[in-house]
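Can you give me the bound-state structure? Components:
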Amino acid sequence: MSDTATRPAPPAPPKSTGVAVTTAIWWRRALPMAALYAVSLGIALTLAALLVMMTGASPWSAVEALYEGSLASPAAIGLSLDKAAPLLIVALGTCIAARAGLFNIGQEGQLLIGAAVFTTIALFMPGPGPLVLIVALIGGALGGAFWAGIAAVLYFWRGIPVVITTLLLVYISAQVVFYSVSQSWWLQEHLPTGGVMAPQSDLLPEDRWLPHFGEYPGLNFASTIVIALVLTVIVTVMLRRSTWGFRLRMLGMNRSAARRAGVSALVFGGTALLLSGAFAGFAGAAMVGGGNHRMQPGISENSGWDGLLVALVARENPVLAVPVAIFFGMLRAGGGFLASTGVPRYIVDVVTAILVLAVVFPPAFRLYQRQIATRRQAKALAAATSGAAA
Amino acid sequence: MIESIALILASTMRLATPLAFAAAGEYIAERAGMINISIEAMMLGGAFSAVWGATLTGSPVLGLVFGMLAGLLIGFIHANFSHRLTVNTYVVGLTLNLLVLGLTSFLLDVMDLSQAQVSKFAIPILSDLPLVGDALFNQRWPAYLLWILIPGIWYAMYRTRWGLNMRAIGENPSAVDATGIDVLKRQRFALLIVGVLSGLGGAYLSVGEVGLFNQNMTAARGYVVIAAVIFGGWSLKGTMIGCLVFGAADAMRLALPALGVTLNAQLLIASPYILAILAMVLFAKSNRAPGSYGRPFVRGVV
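Here's the bound-state model for the whole set.
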C-alpha cells in the first residue's frame, strides 16, 4: 500500500502571480469572516430592537435618542469622550493583566477605591492645587493597585483564584466607599447649615480639578481622554516593543517555558495584576477629578465592568480599545437621553453585553469550523487507510 | 435566649438553602475542573424567571420550573461559547452576569410582576422539636428536595462511572481524553446541571423565601457559592458546611441589630464577602484543588 494512493492530494499552493491574486485570496478569506460578523451583530441588534419594542417605543426612536445624546451636538460629543475616557483607562490595565495570562475582573472595585483615595487626598492635603492634584491622582492609582494587590497576594500565597477574590472584593469596596462618605470624620459632606447630609463628599476646591477644555454649549471635555490616549500609546509601545512586554507575553502564553527562561510568575504576573489595578484606580480618580468633582457611592456607573468589556471586545489589544471605548462611551452618553422615550436605561447595559458576545462569537466559530474540518479529514484518512490495508 | 437562637438557626437555614442548591451544582462543575462564574447569572435569571413564570401561570410551582429553565438556558449558552467554541470561560461568564443583571433590571421596569410564594410544609412531630425543629422541619417545601439531591449527587459522583469520569476530568483531562471520552461534552453537561440547580436556587430565593423579585436580588450570592466550594476543600460535605457558614453570616447580619448589638451597617453588609475571602485564606489548601482546576481543556496540550 502506498502513501500517495491513499492520502488526499494537498491543496495546490496559491500561485503568487501578482497583487490581484493575493488580493483575491485575501478577500476569499475575509469575506466569510465579514459575513459572520454581520450576521452575529445583526442578531444582537435585532434582540435589542425586540427588547425596545416590548416597552412600546419604536427602536428607531431609541436610536434617535442615543444619537441625540452622543453625537448630535458638540457638547454631546464632549460627553461621549468624557464617558469613554475611564473605560479606556480601565481597558488598558486589563490588557496588561491579560497579556500575563491573569484574569483580573475586579476593576469595578479597584476603580471605586481609587476614587475614594483620590478624594481623600484632594480634600485633606494642604498645598498648591496642581501639586495636590498630581499626588492625589497617583494616590488613586496606588489605591487601585493595593486593592488588586490583595488578590495578588492571596493568589501567590494561598493559590486562591484571582477571579474569585477580585469579584468578592468589588462588593467589599462598594461598602468601604459607602462607609467613607457616610462618616463625618472622613468624606461625608459638611453643610454650613447643619442640615441633612447626603452620603457624598464635599465638592473639591476648583484648583484640584482636572483641566477642562472648552465651554458648555460648544465642544467641551475633561483632560482625562487626553491622558487616556497618551497612556494608550505608552502601553502599546511597552507591550509590543519592550523586553518587559515580551516577558509578559511569554508568561501568558506558556508559563513553564517562561519559568525556564527566567521569567518569574510572581514578579511579572504580580506586577501585571498591580498595574491593572492601578489603571482602574487611576480611572476612578480621574472620574472624580474630571467629572463629578465629589465622591458619590454611585460614581462609577459600572465603568469598571464596562472597561473590562471594552478590553474583551478589543481582544486585549490597546489600540483597538480606543474605538471600542469611544463607541461604548457614546452608548453611555446616549443612554441618558433614553428616559424621554420611556425605554429604561438598562437597555444600554443589555446592548453592551450582547455586543460583547456578538463580537467574540465569529472568530471562535471559525476556529471551531476549522477543527471540525480537520477532524473530518483525519477520519476520512483513517477510513481510507484501514480500507486499503484490508 | 433559646428563642433567639432558634430564630437565628431558622433564618440560617432559609438563607443557606438557595446557596446549597447552587453549590450542589457548582460542586460538580468544580470537580470537573471548571470555575463557573456565570452561576451569578443563573441564580439571578432563575430568581427573575420564577416570579415571571408564577405571574404568567399563577402557580409558584411552575415558577420554580421557569427558574430552572432560565438557569438551563444560561448554562447552555455558556457551555456552547466556552466549551464548544473556545472563548475564555471567564469572558463568557462575566458577560452573561452583566447581561442578565441588565436584562432583569430592564424587564423589571417594563413588566408588572405579581407576588407569588410556595407554601410552607411543617413535618408533623419533628417540627415541634425544640431549637432545631423550626429550622429544619418547617420550611418551604422545595427546601426538602435537598435531602434527596445531596445524597443523590454524592452517589453520582462517588459511586458511578459517570462521577468517576467527571472527577478524572478535573484531575487530568488529557488522560480522560485518551480513553476516548469527549471531555468538552462532559464539561458542557456539567454546566447544564449547574444551570438547572442554580436556577432552582435563585427561584427558591424569589418565589420560595421572599415572594417577589428585586433588582439585583442575588447580590453576588453566586460568587459566595463558589467561595463555599473552595472553603469546603472541594468535598461535598465541606461545600454544604460552607453554605451553612455563609447562611449563618447572612442571618447574623439580620439578627444582630434585633439582638441589640450595634455594628456598622456597611461592615455587616460586607461581612459575607469578607468572610468568604477569610474562609478561603484559612481553609483552602490549594493542594486539594482538582489537578487542572480553572484551566481550559485543549486537546493535545499537556
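A couple of observations. The mean pLDDT of chain B is 89. Chain B has twelve helices and two strands.
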